[in-house]
Description:
The chain is of the alpha+beta class. About 25% of the residues lie in helices and about 40% in strands. The chain has one domain. It contains two helices and five strands.
Amino acid sequence: MTTHIDIKLDIIRDDSNVTKTINVTLNKHSTDTELTKTYNDENGDEQSYLYMGYVDSTITATKSMVYTIPDENQTNLIVGTEPHNHANELAYQEKYLLWWAGIKESDVYETKHTELVTGV
């Protein structure tokens, strides 16, 4: 039997716009769902593709935790701005990957994930 777990990260910044914590939500789903993603390509033409994802109506259990970002991995970089700043995007992605690795390596995450998989 396949276990369907969807993980959502909500990055929290302090008053000076520095990343401090991440609210992590793990959702167990009864199934995955075929979804459509639509976007405009570089020519402005609308494109779409199908992918397997999750919808709220299939959630059967939820666990959550707060991950505190180590001081050396906190940042005030902002992404998704216009005009596009490629260097900021890459620097932020490096931090994000460190955060994700830290979350997955944490004992709390392992416990929450195991509880969802085993139904505890």
